[in-house]
Design goal:
It is built from 21 helices and four strands. The chain is globular and about 70 Å long. It has a four-stranded mixed sheet with strand order 1-2-3-4. Helices cover 61% and strands 7% of the residues. Among the domains are: 5-132, Rossmann fold, CATH 3.40.50.10610; 300-349; 351-448, no CATH class. With 448 residues, the chain is of the alpha+beta class.
Length: 448
């Protein structure tokens, strides 16, 4: 299902057409026997002039749905057409003119029409594909706006997502999905922003739990609790929540992706690959999911395979920062320091952690003086700039200063630095593994 084109007068209404698309995708994904590509892969074709046949081949789908949304005051018009990817033949088309207050009803009607056109036997007369999540039009609009900003995965975007989800809840405190959105946004501000776990996790957990009180069968809420548990280093709870999320919503690609990361951290690489590959099957051109497939190989020390997988991901987007960093790591760990430096220079963002990695590459390639100079510069700015103690510990390992590295890792644990999740499997820490202080750290983060 391709993103619906925004035909409203206001260009800013694009979040609304995108949100309608995502909600219908989610509804179709819940129909057993129907394979629906997830949001990220579908949105990869947004604004691109690509033939339906090419889209079908790249996503491995037989049919493509496209359409448009026009919102005027309290009215909404949705036009949709279902096309055979092989020959471009229109299988079905329909225009829906409805009041905005009936948006959930028209989403359900649209989803049921699509299923009926593809697999008539899968449509049950009494089954509802799209449930009315809120009675408030304004709250639903704010929820769609929040998801729009959440998908940007930037600190600014997540901050705006928090505001939108909170406003939605002010209008309807019983809106379970808005509670999930707020929980997810606050949680990942730890990783994509500068939020401290102690400041955001209690509130995030309260919202995820509230969502489950409102809807015990909401897979997204269980996934939220799984995500929160990873930041708390509670791997058993995280695995339990992700498995429940997948049981309730098998087509939720993010749950498979996040579960794969837990399994990597636990050193269960075969299971991690199964989950990462399942996520990619559901969302084949998602950059972050393709990156996760490569991370399984990287953490399992299969460096040539990791380099292959990261290179393929960069073919989808040559500037995707997480994969540029991961490929740099794969080159570094396999001793290809010139390639690692070349990869490093492609990064547009040069924060403290990137400078630390540059220093480590320089040190490994023999330029100790330049590496030490960079380290001094970083330590001078550490009191005023947020420099991860885990990242700093890595360069002290490279320098052979185990005492300082362990002291920094202990500081990282006091701060609950999420980067400690890699202690069990990351090759960076191999020189410390026999030290009793390191073994105590492993126990503290529940990885031993």
């Amino acid at each position: 299902m391709l993103p619906f084109v925004n035909m409203s007068r206001e260009k800013e209404d694009e979040y609304f057409s995108d949100g309608i698309t995502e909600e219908v995708i989610n509804a179709l994904a819940n129909v057993e026997g129907l394979h629906v590509v997830s949001r990220t892969s579908a949105f990869a074709f947004k604004g691109r002039n690509v033939s339906v046949r090419t889209i079908g081949e790249e996503l491995a789908v037989a049919s493509v749905l496209e359409g448009s949304v026009r919102r005027e005051g309290s009215a909404v018009r949705i036009t949709a057409q279902l096309i055979n990817a092989a020959d471009g033949y229109h299988l079905w088309s329909q225009t829906y003119d409805r009041e905005l207050r009936n948006v959930f009803m028209v989403e359900d009607e649209l989803a049921r029409s699509i299923v009926h056109a593809l697999r008539p036997r899968l449509v049950k007369a009494s089954s509802q594909l799209v449930r009315q999540a809120t009675a408030s039009i304004e709250a639903h609009d704010l929820y769609l706006r929040g998801r729009h900003f959440w998908n940007k995965r930037t600190e600014q975007g997540l901050t705006r997502a928090v505001e939108a989800f909170q406003h939605a809840l002010d209008l309807d405190p019983s809106y379970a999905l808005a509670h999930v959105g707020l929980a997810d946004s606050k949680s990942i501000l730890i990783e994509y922003g500068t939020a401290r776990p102690a400041d955001v996790l209690p509130e995030a957990k309260a919202h995820a739990q509230k969502a489950l009180e409102l809807d015990r069968e909401l897979g997204e809420a269980h996934a939220s609790l799984g995500l929160i548990s990873t930041y708390e280093f509670d791997w058993e709870k995280a695995e339990q929540e992700y498995r429940r999320a997948i049981e309730l919503r098998p087509a939720y690609a993010s749950a498979h992706q996040w579960y794969a990361l837990v399994l990597i951290n636990l050193g269960r690489f075969a299971d991690a690959r199964t989950e990462a590959e399942r996520a990619r099957q559901l969302d084949p051109v998602s950059l972050i999911i393709n990156n996760m497939v490569g991370l399984v190989s990287l953490e399992n020390r299969e460096y040539p395979r990791a380099i292959e997988e990261f290179t393929r991901t960069l073919e989808l987007d040559p500037g995707f920062p997480p994969t540029l960093r991961a490929l740099r790591a794969a080159y570094f760990l396999s001793g290809r320091y010139a390639d690692a430096l070349a990869q490093h220079d492609k990064l547009s963002e040069m924060g403290p952690e990137q400078l630390i990695m540059r220093a480590r590459i320089l040190l490994a390639s023999g330029d100790r003086a330049a590496a030490v100079e960079l380290l001094r510069h970083l330590e001078d700015r550490s009191p005023t700039k947020l420099v991860s103690p885990t990242a700093l510990a890595g360069i002290y390992v490279s320098l052979g200063d185990k005492e300082q590295a362990l002291a920094l890792l202990e500081r990282a644990y006091a701060e609950r630095d999420f980067r400690l999740r890699g202690l069990k499997t990351d090759p960076d820490w191999d020189p410390l593994r026999t030290d009793p202080r390191f073994q105590r750290l492993l126990r503290q983060v529940n990885l031993e």
